[in-house]
## 1
Amino acid sequence: MTENRVGDPPDALLRAEAINKNFGAVVALQDVSLQIPRGEITGLVGDNGAGKSTLIKIISGVLTPDSGVIEFERKAANFTSPAEAREQGIETVYQDLALAGNLAVWANVYLGRELTVGPKILHILDKRAMLSKTGEMLERFIRNVPPIAEPVELLSGGQRQVVAIARAGAWGSKLILMDEPTAALGVAETKAVEDVIFGLKRQGLTILVISHNLDQIFRLTDGVWVMRRGRVIGYRQTARTHPDEIVSMITGAAASAGAGA
Amino acid sequence: MTLGRWSKLAALARRQGVLIAFVLLVASMFATTSTFGTYQNLINVLQQNSIIGIIACGMTFAIILGGFDLSVGSVTALASVVGATIMIDLGVPGIPVGVIGAVAACLLVGATNGWLIAWLGVNPFVATLGTMTVVRGLIYVATNASPRFGVPYSFTTLGMGRVFGVPNPAIIFLIVAAVLGFVLHRTRFGHYVYAVGGNPVASAQMGVNAARVRFAVYVLVSLCAAISGIILVGQTASATPQAALGYELTAIAAVIVGGAPLGGGRGRMGGTIVGVFLLGVVANGLNLFGVSPFWQPVATGLILIAAVAFDGYSKRGGFGFV
Ligand SMILES: Nc1ncnc2c1ncn2[C@@H]1O[C@H](COP(=O)(O)OP(=O)(O)OP(=O)(O)O)[C@@H](O)[C@H]1O
Ligand SMILES: [Mg+2]
């Protein structure tokens, strides 16, 4: 019955089918099904506690669902750890926690995938190569690359998020999940982060972005999923909807909104 | 016009504060006492600080990781008691066995620390305070709190000998510092120590096995303590159960003075070496000026507090060299 829902996007990179997740007595997700179209920027909106973060955590392997299936590139993909998801090309950008502030930008970009030289067992870092390649990698997505030899903690919040997002896109990943990537940022910094997100799309990546900022959703996305109280309310192509419609779907104000569950 | 120069100087003082303090200290020692600069005295300073220095090299890893190891003093004593006992019983052919036995016993303690901290999530203070007390207690039980004499005299070459006039313990310290400095600053493992110390959650997200890094670090610290304990045997041809009491705090002080704050993520091996010798030269200076040795902990404590206060003031630890 979910197959022919009005406005379902074609060619899904990822599909979630009938996901349920409870935290004790709290029903966080109830029969959630959605698709993320390949190569697009998809928004995920909903009020506080709607279950958006929970859904992203399930897709990225941080949480396991109580029931339901995730399909990534048409293969079953119920990941049990973020590492597993990352191996398949799914990266997540968190609002904080994502970077080690005491390490330089290049070291963060290469954290966990360091380039080494010399005898294998010694794992001697090839700093020079990592420095120069970090520059190249970030330039693919970022116009003003922050100083890559500086510790991340010396960068502004916006620059940090730009680095975190560019890192997520730098490793041959296919799907990037972002949970409120600009929540803590000012106007100019938000703009810089949005530029990077567009940069990722230009490189052919698929993006799912959670945001409470509808202006941003309408600037960024090709389509948007709306959730309310643990359920999926529906999908709209951004070009064919209007903020008022999305708001009423989020709040459940108008009867016309509910096409879903 | 001179403002620029002053702010440059201030920035330098902030980054290299401890190194500058050390250079000034040594210079004033040279200026005020003729005995400080004598070959014999400088050798003494090297000799006396090598054992703490080796422990401090290991401690640097633990502190950058965001922890520390209180058990190193007990582990140093463990190495010397185990090593000396085996060497006394087996004689000259038993020397390698003694060394191996000492190292093995210490690695066991280090592995216990690592296991408690990395996998059981026990706070490093609690875990290493526990092993510190248990190991010291076991040493007292095993030795009945009496020293062990009669290590083959030839073994004192390790502790008392010199190569080109440099005491062997200092050479060992130099090698340990160079090797561990390389590991810390040039290898992936050292990189992970900084990463886990700076942000364990982010490191784990990026696939760094934080537990394995923690475990390895505490084993490494105990290995350094083992080396120190064995040198101790070489200096006295004996072992005392009370050996190395309080070394853990001196080593931690040296590392912190050297610019690695508790809390982790920061610090350099070069800083630790400066920290060790800063405290060492102050102790030596008090000695040369005829001040009672009881004042030495007072000086160490004051320097520690001053260094941390200065670091908090300038809010940027670490050194720009090595
Ligand atoms: N670890 C948890 N333990 C218990 N309840 C949880 C946990 N995580 C989420 N919840 C609950 O699940 C529901 C969905 O939370 P979730 O964080 O997914 O919402 P959200 O849509 O991301 O909200 P927000 O916009 O405020 O970030 C909420 O009622 C929340 O309290
Ligand atoms: Mg959320």
## 2
Amino acid sequence: MTNEKILTKKFIFFAGKGGSGKTTCSASFALNLARKGFKILLVSTDPAHSLSHIFERKIGSKEIKIEENLWAIEIDPKKEARKYIKKIKESIKEVVSSVIVEEIKKQIDTAFLSPGVEESAIFDKFIEIMDKIGNPYDKIVFDTAPTGHTLRLFTFPELLESWIERLIERRLQVINLMKMASKVDESLRKKIERDPLIELLKKRREKFLLVRSYLQNKKNSCIIFVLDAERLSILETADAISLLKKHGIEVDGIIINRILTKINSKFFSKRKEIQKKNLDEIKTKFKEMIIGYIPLLESDIYGKESLEKIKFDKFK
Amino acid sequence: MKNKFKHSLAVISDFLEGAFKVKASSIIRKEASDLNDDFMLLLFGDFLGIPNPFSYFALEFLPLFVEELESWEKRISIRKSIVAEKAGQYDFCC
Ligand SMILES: Nc1ncnc2c1ncn2[C@@H]1O[C@H](COP(=O)(O)OP(=O)(O)OP(=O)(O)O)[C@@H](O)[C@H]1O
Ligand SMILES: [Mg+2]
């Protein structure tokens, strides 16, 4: 991708419908940037990882060096959640008797099975990874999960913020009432000067706010949708763009994948005709958002050699 | 760090249970107690079967509240109808 503007961004996300080419695009983009001399971390937020497959080597839940200037990681939600729960159980053990510990453990384990856990664990790790920008990475490239997942990931900070906000508000109300009462009780007044829990809640809020500001600030981040020139892809992409807009998140570019070029069979010339129509629609719908296209290649794309060759040519 | 938290949290539950000699306290205390239940509900509602999409992040605060959890759950289960009403106020689902 030669688009100069994208080169100024710190976080570059590749999103799109299942199978549209997110992994292919993010991997080749990351590889190209690394070879330009940027220190790049390539992150997969898709629990069904395929960075390992495309680079033909094991990549795991820890950052691993692929080559000079290029690192990669596949977020493992199960592993992250287990680590997190273990830490919580340990600190509970420090506070209460073993009988209560057993009781609480049951509740934690139930919570561990609830549907939101994987997404929460991914999001928590996502916050941790975004914190690494500037040190040591110049840019972080994200290979995301199919559209639905990614929309939730992007809108999560907003929801979490409003939850934390309400917690802080309630807590302050309780403290304020106690302060009122403490006017006539010296011993109480001394005890409620500061509330460390409020500080802890605010610290959490800061983290959520930071992620949201990274996502909303165009100076920092760039979201690129990859789509095929097919009807359902066009519709899904348009829906996703307008939903994100509602949440204050702007989509910056789209890449059109699997363009039929040198085709001469009868079957494919029909297909090409349809694609031509869809391409026209994409051009009217997304206009200057289009930053590149990739032709349909004769074979699957994996391994550095084929990734190198992918060029996001400017659309003509 | 941990002691600091235990201390501050204990002050609140002491207060709610009437440990301080406060004039005109019962009204204030009642209000504080309701708000505190609200607070706990926002954090650990899922322990009472109220789905909370943020329960994963709430667990971070669990070690600070384990000692109070039992009495809170008892108190709140006596006031089940109130809980249902309060839970209705939270448009939790996304
Ligand atoms: N332009 C192309 N020409 C030929 N094959 C392609 C092209 N783009 C992608 N492919 C192949 O299509 C398959 C899907 O691509 P890719 O894994 O990049 O999609 P994805 O959006 O990451 O999928 P998922 O939603 O499952 O994560 C891969 O086997 C890839 O090699
Ligand atoms: Mg993929």
## 3
Amino acid sequence: MSPTLSHLDELEAEAIQILRETAASFERPVLMYSIGKDSTVLLHLALKAFWPGKPPFPLLHIDTTWKFREMIAFRDETARRLGLDLRVHTNQEGLAQGVNPFASGSKVHTDVMKTQALRQALDMWKFDAAIGGARRDEEKSRAKERVFSFRDRHHRWDPKNQRPELWNLFNTRINQGESIRVFPMSNWTELDVWLYIWKHGLPVVPLYLAKPRPVVERGGTLIMVDDHRMPLEPGEKPRMVSVRFRTLGCYPLSGAVESEADTLDKVIEEMLRAKTSERQGRLIDHDQSGSMEEKKREGYF
Amino acid sequence: MSFAELKEGERLREYLERYERTELLRFLTCGSVDDGKSTLIGRLLHDTGRIYEDHLAALERDSKVHGTTGGGLDLALATDGLKAEREQGITIDVAWRYFATNTRSFIIADCPGHEQYTRNMATGASHCQLAISLIDARKGVTTQTRRHAFIASLLGIRHVVAAVNKMDLVGWSEDRFREIEREFFLYCQRLGISEPAAVPISALQGDNVVRRGTNSPWYAGPPVLELLESVPVDRPSPDAPFRMPVQCVIRPDLDFRGFAGQIAGGSVKPGDRVRVLPSGRESRVVRIARAQEDGGDLPYAAAPQSVVLTLADEVDCSRGDVICCVGDDPAVTLGIECDVVWMQEQPLVPGQRYLLRTGTKTTPCTVRRVRWLLDVDTLETSPAESLRMNEIGRVQLECEERVVVDGYRDCHATGALVLVDRLTNATSGAGMVRLPTEIGARRAHWETQAAETLERADAKPSLVTAEERERRWRHAPRTVLIYGPPKSGKTRAALELERQLFDAGAAVVVLDGQALRRGVSKDLGFSDEDRSENLRRAAEIAKLLNDQGFTVILAMVAPDPAARARARALIGEGRWEERGMGVASSPEH
Ligand SMILES: Nc1nc2c(ncn2[C@@H]2O[C@H](COP(=O)(O)OP(=O)(O)OP(=O)(O)O)[C@@H](O)[C@H]2O)c(=O)[nH]1
Ligand SMILES: [Mg+2]
């Protein structure tokens, strides 16, 4: 009997190997849980990798306080249902200074509430390996990154000087204060993620499915009015439009897609016909050309 | 978009089934700097419609700023994603791209051509099954082309496609193409790459990349994409000996103790007897454990699956150990001989200590000796004291703890190693284990028994006796081996001897080692073991010819005295004669 592994099975096997290497090689690993579809798959893989035990690391969510409310509800429900150790960190200084996506702009908001917050959390809990669900097919600088990606004491990435990474013999050696970002799903595509969710029937945040939601238009992008903090123009009234999201982040920075796809099957079918990339609706990626590389160098995930 | 389209009226389930059945091929682009590797990948994605509209718009904008094509679409920018790369117009590190057609899924590693970044190319190649070697039609095959092809073959890549690029700049000259093709194929042959392909292309204009071009009516072969869709994909064989390096022990409670790992070779099922190495304890597989909601325990698993095994006995087994089948054991050893690609500024020198990582085991090791350095142009070896950055050579290591390894050719996952600098933690070198058993058992067949049925068929005596033949040819047949390093004048000496014997009336033939490699031995490379096997085949042919009354002159490198002694034994002492030709450049002999 020699059934050849399917493409998805092979990706799963590779990711599980990486997760186990991480657990075995680091003292204080952590899984970055950002609630979206990639995190959903990542968490499932982690549960599978250590079954019948539990993943030997906590989950970390960097809460900017601007996530969709449905995301937070989904996060807490997931941690409760699975009995996992969930740590949540918010940059309190940033909060006190009133940094937010509207007044401060997406660039400052992302830097203070996401990048700096992440660095604070990693330092505070002394995590030496942070596992993330990023994929190489998402963005052109991510396409260049190693599976075990070295970060110096200041959490910086040096893309011109990455460690060679041959076979699955990962170099996990670091000195005090340095750390590694681990990307078990490096070789997955957006399609692989959705098909995996579909095949295994994994629950996802309902925001991925189309439903009439209150939106306003900003610079050609549909933004959902998730709470009262969204400043409206005088006389502006949110419209109810059937929309869904291709990626999830801070609601003021996540562009919605007009769609009637209210089931997972329809969402995947739409994605298969899409002519634009999943990141197109992400406002933070468009601040400047090469902005993802800049942010990653600073310690962004 | 980067995937195969959903067909009209196709259900998602059907699509998934189709997608899961499509074969995955991992390939890289390699070759000299600026030969057009990144442009080719960009072209491949562009012409198959695999670039999203927003990405294409960004690409058009970027081409105006950073492009090397005078404002036109610079497709290299589709993969050159780092700021420094776009500014300099070169590739520094591997870019990974993903796309699928209706027949195959592809993972592409677009590798840098610059010699300084050879280690990044090796990183890409270690994950691939096929290499596209780009060659600038104006420059032809360069040292860097050879270096990359060599590294690819060293890492076990068996399929190579030469994309002779920038044909638009040489007026689509067929002569030029054929010349490059010939030179490259010759080199591939020497590497033991059996069926290389060559395609004349213009990555810039798109000819023969996805679609056939109109500029090369003389080229009858397929475009690059068609080759990629049809080359057979090498898969790990489930019949190989079972190996699983243990990553960690899963022990949630007192009732469960499972050994977690990714299967490196072969397959396993409950009930199989296994051995835990290096300790050597034996046990039996009880379960391949899996959660009920994922379908429950597995009846069978094979490489490269990640699994959890439980064993029947309370054996001592932990991270770094390897669970293996009983019989067909890997080597358990302190000393390792391996081919090393050196990847850091500070050279590898004897006496130096590194951390060695193989399987899931990490142990300190000391470099004992550099046996030789390999010249990628001539494929000749020369004695060396050290290996500098980007050099490749044969190295002996001494580990502080016993390690469990296979020959790289037998099992990549347990035959590969990396060396890590103990101070800087840099990944300093990549190694491929070479084992004496691998040489004996797999490559050279000196020891192998002939199939029984063949021997019986062979036994019918000829109606012509040896004496009759001797009388006819007026001499007793012999085999003369003329050996020595490349360019030492073997062939010349052989041809002169042939003339002499022929004039004296003898029935005589010359077998040249190089000529054998074109046919009989086209699967062989230039390692010691492959040279030894080439000599064995030559000797077998010589023996058959001797039996028919012919005298045979062998012109071969044959550096290994032990192999020569075996050839002598095969032919028979009385019929054998050997002459060495200036044994200078070979380090060992
Ligand atoms: N005329 C012509 N120019 C080409 C062709 N293919 C590539 N080029 C040009 O050659 C230059 C180098 O192309 P790249 O694709 O960046 O080369 P590369 O091999 O990826 O280079 P490195 O990765 O830095 O080693 C660019 O200016 C391309 O536009 C071709 O078929 N014809
Ligand atoms: Mg390039």
